[in-house]
Amino acid sequence: MISSNNTRLVIRLGQMMSRASSTQGTTNGYSTTTLKLIKNTNRNIHHQNLLSSLRESHSGQTHRPNNQTASHPDNGDDQVVDYDIVIVGGGVVGLTLANALASSRAITDYDYKILILDSQDLNQSKEWNLEPDRWSNRISSITNENLNFLEDIGVYRFIDQTRTNPVERMQVWDGISDARIIFDAVSEPSNNQLSQTVPQMARFVENFNLQRALLRSLDQKVNLSGDSFVKVLGSTKVLDISPDLRSDWPIVNLQNGMKFRARLLVGADGFNSPVKTYSKINSTGWNYDSKCLVGTLELEPTSFNHTAWQRFLTSGPLGFLPLSDRHASLAWSTKPKIAAGLKSLEGPTLARVINACYRLPHESVNYLLSRISSHSSLQPIDSREIESEIDWRSSDQVNGLPKHNLTNFEDELPPRVLDVRMDSVASFPLKMFHADHYVGTRLKSPPSHLSSDSSQNNDETFRAGESIRTVILGDAAHVLHPMAGQGLNMGLGDARELSRTIEIALENGQDIGGLTALRNYSRSRYLSNHLVMSTVDKLHKLYSVDNSPLVWLRSVGVEVLNEIETLKKLMIGRAGGTRATRTSGLNNNENFNDSMIKKKKLFEEDEDGKVFDRKVWSRVGEAFEGIERARNLVEGLSKLGLETLKTKLQKISL
């Protein structure tokens, strides 16, 4: 008996056959295109029958998603409902993955059941709206590559473009030496397909604007019956996750009593991910002794506000993200005491401090911030004292101070900040952690005919891992310093690659929850993400010191780099006192190369030990050994006087 799903496939086959070109080569009276369609449809029907039998082995009932975003469960029954893919996390990354899956013909043709869960009320997120002059403090810079991806999956058109702003230039400079590097969109190698009047290297978008677009896009992705390809359940907190005793499918238990069993369970649920906890995936990293202060800035009106600014102060980078001709977003990474002192200021006073930190010499900035951080919450800083200090240090008697109102310096400083919306000001702690794996695995049990003490149990075959049908992405997999604005872009890249991995697995007839299929996702994303995170971490540490020789070296490097357009293009193309802790391993004295060796070992214990080619790992190891040697050399040289260092370098150049 042919199921209703198979009937739809046969009908669709007839429709496609009628459109097939008869001018192509034929075999036994059928066109090549028609034969290919018949072959694919037979494979689809076989897969549907297999899928149905697997579902029936778990539950006698089926549950079809509808096109409504549900904030409450459909019923309170204890019965477990089966889904092919369950995504925990309805943020930007989880919703992007859901949209990508619902846009894939390989997935929708199989009528896969997809569920997305989130503890927040996603109906409210779908109706998010702010006044034109009000802005969220959660802003992200989306690269052209990811903008194209969002357009490919039908999301971009739902983004409110009046609340986005293109980034056409980026200026980054050293707070001590003023060494500067400038990136222009015109120097970027871009394949951006979006229609633009002006080149852009990225686009600033509020996270809520993007989340709303993703939810509205899902509403439009429906099947022939008008049902949504993805069921969305908001206000549903995950209580715990447990393995099914009758199979290897994980069961998600919600606080409201509902239960869902997943062929593949996806964790897009943030750093404290329940899916990661269930999968027993450890993370390597550390907490920074820093917080990021965010908020909305009100500016002097300007007709051209498409430049992002970042000054590296010794206490952390001060970022200025343009939103409109009168507004920008603040992203200031600094010490916790400084952040607390800044939050205690009034809006106009904080605005003056921000202006001063972009314009004053670093000695004046350091003194100003030390005065702010010395006041406790019980003794807030006196605004008059701060403004008096700024006035004196901004006077004409202070040498080396670029004046904002002078034509020569207008291109070197951001627009003046008039006020800060204090109701938008918030801060969050900074950290860097990277999961040891992206795919949940467990050790294979030895065959029953082998005794527990058999020496054969040490064979690599039985030590190799097998999938527990879980995978993580986004902040669940990696968290990094926000200075480069790459956190969300990395998460979107994860979603793009995971959806592609699932699609390829289906086309090849693989189990989407199996390690054979999912390891392709790890191969593609893990090393790339790790390199970005390491680079950002090294930059953070490099610019956190004021040692004269090291400042001189980094400044020379930046100025040389600013003159090499090829390297700048590559950098833009890629830009889609800490204590080390680890939920297992890596201390503060362990270098990055040792960390990479540990990662390599962890990967080699997966399945057949060939997640990465050994030659590739060898080259990566050699590269990072070189980096470590260079860093050790710089640290050694930094103990010498500046003049001695210059003399040694001059001799080397001769």
Automatic annotation (TrEMBL):
GO terms for molecular function: FAD binding; oxidoreductase activity. Residues 55-77 are annotated as: Disordered. GO terms for cellular component: mitochondrion. Residues 55-72 have a biased composition (Polar residues). Residues 460-507 form the FAD-binding domain. InterPro entries: FAD-bd, FAD/NAD-bd_sf, UbiH/COQ6_monooxygenase. The keyword Flavoprotein applies. PANTHER family: UBIQUINONE BIOSYNTHESIS MONOOXYGENASE COQ6, MITOCHONDRIAL (PTHR43876:SF7). The keyword Flavoprotein applies. This is FAD-binding domain-containing protein. Keywords: FAD, Flavoprotein, Oxidoreductase. It comes from the Eukaryota.
